[in-house]
Fold each of these.
Amino acid sequence: MGIWFAFLLKANIIISVLFGIYYIFLRKEKFFFFNRIFLLSILLLSVSLPFIPAIEYISANGSQASFSIFHPLNDLYSEFELSGYSATNNINRINPYTHDVDVNYYWIIIENLFLLFYLIIASVLCLKFLKQLVIVFRVIKHSNKEKHGRFTYCTPKPDLPSFSFFNFIIINRSRYNDGQYQQVLSHETAHSQQWHSMDVILSELAQIILWINPLMPVLKRYIKLNLEYLADEEVVKSGVDVANYQRNIVLYSAKISSYPLVNLFNSSRIKQRILMMNADQSPQINLYKYAFILPIAIGLYFIINPPVVVSANDTENINNVFIPYEGIYQFGNNKERIIKIFERNKQLVLKQYWDEKEIIFQKTSALGFLNKEGSFPLEFIMEKDGTILQMLAFNKDLWHKINFEPSKKQEFQLERKQLDIYEGYYMSMDKEGLYLKFTSIENGLMVKEMWQGKEYIIYPESDLKFSTGYGYFPVQFKKNRDGTIKEAIIYNKDLWKKVNGYKPESKKIIILSDKLLEDYVGEYVVSPDWILKFKKEGDHLIITVPGQQAIPVFPESESKFFIKDDELTTIEFRRGNKNGIETAILTQSGISKIANKVK
């Protein structure tokens, strides 16, 4: 269950329970101030309690305990057995044959569609709310204003009913006699003095977020009705003739405003207001009911966020919220593509075994993560039993958990002088124009792909055999009779000849005008899922490719650009008949792709 679904469920439980208590026990009480606090508490608790994490406490004995595998918002019911559990034995118990795992893609699609539908309705309600605000401000703007202390009296068009909005009191004196005017003014002043507009705004915002709850419109109606009770109470306390005041309410009740964000003298629910004014004051002993608000709130907190119980030996695991994600993952059946997911310093870390590179991720949703640069998304897939056996990288590459971890090769020690003989440039015998550069480092070699700048560190397994620490990128060198290196075989099949005297060509960067660079800025489509975005940065361009970090490209001519440390990648812009830029030709290792400019 996604984080938003969990939040909605918990928030709706809180609203339903608390409003039910109000409706049954408190709505007929004449403690209007306490009712106001209770009704506002419903709104505030519904959006705050779900975000408070569950309380954790340690069990002194070693009995089996369970805990929610995520933060309370992430999943309400998925539980993880804690007895004897650790990140290591989790790897051992996963079934390596995961091809038969039922990945419920349809459920993921349904969740996403529901979320989209929910956000569309919320957006419509938000736009409606903003429209109402604009209408109210427009009325205030076009009214004649008089400042009286902290209040501003606004005289609107004659056909508008009286209302208040924060410190603005909209009232047309010509519509009332002196007695009626004083009653209406006292009523709206009470609304303004007690900041009732804030309650109305909060209730509208709550309905935007929690519109799916059928009780929200009813709750909002009772919030407004209680505000009318408070204002009526202030008017009655001022000593007016109650019967005359009630007649005036009925007299003007026929003209109801279409402004739901304001406090109206002639609001609806006239019968309830009059009955409440005529009702006897509630006995003081009934105040005991409000003493239960705090225990009820605490009880709701424990209902939606059950306490976490762990044994003393498992406190380290309980603090690691990334345990469900941790493990060894393989890309399809490719044994050369294996990664490890683990927690370090309360962060999710991905380690690539083939180059030992580590990437740190930040959580973005219940099952989603993103690297700091924002270019590498991960989405874990939860099974029906709450376990995680698979994940998607870049929203398309499926990785599955396996039950073994690659073992690190025992390093063969070579001195720096012995490693120097491998240094130099090696040319591919399979693909023209590809070169590797080998440089000796402490007890290893740095391998650099000259066409795109990627680097690998390989370590000796013998005097002629090298690989990464876990056996990836295997390189077998061969010597000439005089002991010099003549070639390298990579992955037991790709032949690279060592070349002497080779020097990579260094392309010269030329300076182009800002206007010319701006002509190239825009989006270029290679295919529907492959869009190149170019932006201007200083004297060069930045290209953004889906799933990768932004890459700077530099001009070598007026229309041709290149990437530093990547000899085989170029971008050439071409103009159309109208002299505007129409296409960009991306060439990599001799293969060209045409991208059409769309904007």
Amino acid sequence: MISSVGTYSSIIWEPQDIIEVRCIHTSKKIRHIFTTGADIEALWSKLNKGNSTGWNIFAGVLPRTHNAGTKDVDVDIGRCVWCDFDDISDLGKSKERAAFLPKPSMIINSGHGHHFFWRLDEAVEAQEVCKLVGDMADVLPSDTSVKNSSRILRLPGFTNHKPPVAQSEIVESNENRYEFRLLRDLVDERMEEVKPEPEPVVVMLERKDLRGIDAYMAKVDGSTTGGRTHCAYRAAAILSNDFGLSDAESLDKLKTWDMEKNNPPIQFDDDYPADELSRILKNANKYHKQASGSKVKQVVEIRPTTDAGITEQILTEIRKEKTGSNEVHLSFNRLEKITRLLMPGSTTIVSGMPGTAKSMFCLSLGLDVSKAGHNWKYLPLENTRIFHVRRLAAIMADTFSIIDRDSFSADEAAEATRKIKAPLDYESRNILDNPMIVDGEVKPVDHRAVINWIEQAVEENRLVIVDPFANIAFDERNEFQEHTDFIRRVQAISMRSKSTVVIVIHSVKRPEDVLILADIEGSKRIGQLADCCIMIKSMQPKEIEVAKYGGIRETVEANRMLNVVKARNGKGDGAQLAYSFGICGSPRFIEHGVKA
């Protein structure tokens, strides 16, 4: 058996990491020692002496941000994923449970169970690591209480004083390191396999209050011979259309009205067929123009529930979220974390002045969606389809030569395009023809037509992009109101779907560095109603200090600033992120970090 704090340290920490060693005596006294990954082995003699006098020796699995960090908020990155089989003494059974995962980088016999560790090939945000640890515990199953970021586990090489007294030691170790995404995907697949079938949820909605219909109909006049069918038509239209009753309900009340208001009643007049009222009701349904339900008194009742129905609905949603089946991980990691700009069922605005590369940014989003295995669609409302496909090709090949359109770079552009022919042919199907170009002429596209297209597109696509908003035709006499109605319709469509709708909108020109919602062109309601608003600002290359993971600050040179002016589904309101675009001939956005 191996028993080495040094081996343990080399597998789960880096030399510069701040480590919390927590010593807990059998009398419940607690002592904290802070050291580094490089220096912890030098503490072995001191820790071993304390261990021999009843102190149990633990250490924080994830590094701390400072030399007093003992809580979850004091942890921001993780370098490994772990599980705790505290209920199994047989190592073979523990390995059997974890057989769907790759070989652990280290296995510890804690004295009363086993700890498995998988070292990551790079540091990952602590929140993401702990979510994976919790999900892994659910599907193995193993101890679900060990998923917090400040979690401490026993160090190997020391006595576990918990009765019965036993030794904590390393059983296996190797130099294997794993991509976080690999482990995440394997756990997600297992979660899908073991996910319980959701119980059917029956939702009962009180649509209308029918009280008062009889009183209303008592005021609808009937007639004598010569005007009865006209009055009956009006009464039928009120019942079926204005009050929104079913055919059976309408016919029943129409017969009652006919008895009371017409003289003689149509239903008893031999000059009419026996089904005359049914015929009148059918015509009223077909030809009446009043908005359906216009006379229905809409009632919202807040009623106490007596079961856990709503809890089950929430849990069903969470189970779906845990599978990650609709999840998209962006190339822009920090932007994704603080905005969730592609959250299913949301509307996102991407804004900026002309020339800030808004369209290139959105095409990059489309490629990320495709990498995640989902469909996307891009509706261009300026320039031709091939113009945008060349931009897409430039991003995929990582060269501006494809869109330079000059003889100097033509050979390079042709060679780069040939290399990506197959994936480009596949991805280009997501970019549609510009509907404004008809037979060589440019014609306006009405906002209602765009709404209809979005409504159809979200049925089969995870991401739907409309670019730009400025070329959608609205009635100039009531433009801002129609802008408001448009964004409300888009929001309603996206909320009903599992898609994200992205609208590209120009911004007004302002000298200020920090952009705000009011800088988006059009009605102010556009930004107020959208879920996420990102504004791209172009600038001359300049040095900017950014914050990176692990509390590290770095000075970078950037020529784009992404202002998060709204992030309803994230925590990034007001944040600014530094990017580079077009550096060294690359048409890709390179994310540097959040402006410090």
Amino acid sequence: MNYIKHTLLSLLVMVALIACNQNTNDTDPEPDPSDDTESPVISLAASETNFRSPGTLTLTATATDNESVSKVEFFEGDVLSDIRLSNSRVLTLEPLQDNKIGEATTEPFTLELPIENGSDIIRTFRARAVDEAGNVGSSLAVTVAVNIELGSLSIRAFAATFNGTFEPDIVVVGPNGFEERITNGNDFLNDLEFGVYTITPSEVVGLDVVANVVLEAETETLELTTNNTFANLDILYRTRPDTGKLWIPVRDERKLIALSPGNLGSTANPAIAIGTGADSGPNAVAFDANGNLWMTDSNGSLVMFTPEQLASSGTPTPTITIEDTGFLPLSVGLAFDAEGNLWLASSGTDSVIRYRASDLSSSGAPTPDVLSVPSMDRPFGLAFDALGNLWVSNRDANTVIMFPKADLEFLNNIPAAVTLTTGSLPEGLAFDKDGHLWVANLGSDTLLRFPVQGLSTGTVAPDITLRNNNGSLESPTGLAFDNAGKLYVTNVTTKTLAIFETSALVASGSPAARIVAGLGDTDVAMPAFNLPPDTLPLSR
């Protein structure tokens, strides 16, 4: 009996030991989130509570939980959506979801907001912390006062001495990266931060019925402050002095003269006279797209003057001089193509040469491209039509020839596509606004018009011939049209400028012209408008 009792006792002890050992090896089970009913605790702070100037507001939430905080949501507004009963049966206020402005899922729980403007405004912010079990804790409200004083700026742009039309181009730059472009004559900028503003007008083109001009204005600065919240600024555009004028070379007097078409009397009264040097008699001029004047001279040089050098009378030193490489002596006609390449009629070598735009950036002796064909015989005047085709007057052959734009990239052995028969000694060429080609015949005292409709065929005859009337055409050489379509002609024999109204250019005859005397020696005077007429490729 004792043996049986002892055995049973041993078995009971063994079972108890096994059970203890099993409990020791087992791991604790994962807590069930549904068992967590404790809401997070959250508070909210603002980096600044009273904004009197634009800046950045940083909202910082401090959140704790018995387990962990999964995210913090930020809300703006002072309205609460409802009251819900949480699992712990604690009443919790919930912000409207539509008012949510951001959230953070890692510490630090922050949100940055730009404060740019506002007057007498109170903004209210709250934060809400959410734990893994979905328990929610809401912060008390934080209020931020916004009372930012802002300024205003009124800008008026006008041109006191210009009667045409123009569109301003003004850039206003201010604090904190502010930038705005103004392209009308009157503008009002509101809600501007206090600080310094720079108002920079760009050069613009003024459109005139006779000759376009460049308008320029000074850069202005002003400051908006609490004592100066409003500023009224007038931007005065002025005509750049070298523009809106007809420039004429006067070779034997070694100068260039600039005439204002609106102020021409019976005797030339140059607005500007530029001396070209004792040994440098100008032959022809042309303006590039930047307003620089290029001139060939009797010295065999090609020189450039900037707009600043042309602003008033004087004898400036050329900014750029292109030295002769065998083609510049007796070079007469000049013309820029749409790509900025400069073409010259080299009468002394029976060729037309081209300087690439890249050749003209500095002084030197670049080698030009050469266009030479058997039909060239003392080329004199040059002109590009609206399609970019090059027209050349052959003074001693009494012809005008044309080279298509497509053939002008590579000049070797390209034939003339069109040949027109003219009067005696054709020199100046010009296209009118309708695309008709006009030719000045120095030897026969005539002007010829070749109609645009037949220029591509090469068989067209002139449809209008103008003849001399009381000195209107006496050895005519240079031609230039203005915006209105009037034709300006320089006469070598009488040393005059003849101006033909558009009504005189519609039929053959001997129409009267307005004569401006006193130009000086106008031999080989190939004039040019600055700015070029709207119909030319280089019009800006």
